[in-house]
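Q: How would the structure tokens look for this protein?
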Amino acid sequence: MANYIKGLVHHPVLQLELPQDLELFFDPARINTLGGQALKHNEDALDATICLFFCGLYAFDQPVQIFGDISTGYIIVPQGTSPL
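A: Here is the predicted structure in token form.
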């Protein structure tokens, strides 16, 4: 997942820029050494990054698809061109 997220630097609408102090969360060698709570913490950082990216696409009025509904919960995901 980390490599896919890093690939968003080439996205045609919104290019992801990772601050240097967050790059450790995207280092495959480091991720492979993690387990338990440390791995969970790293996964949470990756999840937060992709959610923020999707919010950015939404802010640029990109087409979205909604899965679910308001009563049981839903997720909004971008449609169209994406390296993911």
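The chain has a mean pLDDT of 90.

The radius of gyration is 14 Å.

Upvote if useful.
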